[in-house]
Every structure is written in C-alpha cells, then in structure tokens.
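Before the break, one more example. Copy the sequence into your notebook; we will annotate it together after we see the structure.
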Amino acid sequence: MNDMDHVLRTMTFEFFGAGKHKIEMEKLIAMDDGVFLDVRSVPELESLQLKLEHHIEVLHIPIDEIPDRIGEIPRDRMIGIFCSAGTRSTIVYAYLCTKGYENVRVTLGGYEAVASLVLPGKLLKHIEMKRSGK
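Here is what the structure looks like once it is written out:
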C-alpha cells in the first residue's frame, strides 16, 4: 500500500462530516503555532499579497513548487493551507498528508475570510490581545 492509498482510506464520511480537514481563519490565527501556507501562483501573489504580519506567519509556496520546497513547511506547527477557491489547498492538503504531516488543514472562506481579519475593529482587537499576551 502506498502513502496515497493510506491517506485516502482515512478520508471517511466521518472524517469529512466532522470537518477534520478544515480550519477557520479565526481559529488558525488564534493558535500560537499556526502557519498560513499560501499556495497561490506568483502572478496571484503579485496582484494581491496577504502579509498578515500582525496575525500569523505566512509562507508563500506556489503549488507547483511544494515538492521542491517541502522542507520549508514545518512539521511541528499547525499549517492552514490557502488558495483562492480551495481546490489547490485540498490538493496540497492530501499531498502533505502523504508525506506524514499531521497538523495540516484547508482554510475556510477564501479571500473574504482573510479580508475580514484586517477590518479595523478586528485588527485592533487582535493587536491588543497579542500585546496583553492573551
């Protein structure tokens, strides 16, 4: 049995029904060990950069570079995978699972979920929480 066979066998109705492959942006940025993995293409990144420097560490590795740059993706942290529509995130999710990554999730909500994090009220609240150590 190869790695993909094993991963696919774990993707049961119960697995998907419980949403074990997904994470909301709010939950990801609340984690001390969260990493936002942006797998969009370079032209997409050049058109709309997602820095999120007050929220979470961001890694930008286009999907086609993941195999060559997998060593840049930490194994000991929660990885929230992002793309514009969710398709590439899901592919990278399955790929990382075949490589033994356990703490990976597909981020929910696309651009809207990310943009909502930087609304002035939410951004101020997040910065204040970080300053107070909560």
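Residues 3-10+20-132 form a domain with the Oxidized Rhodanese; domain 1 fold (CATH 3.40.250.10). DSSP finds eight helices and five strands in the chain. Try to locate both features in your own notes.
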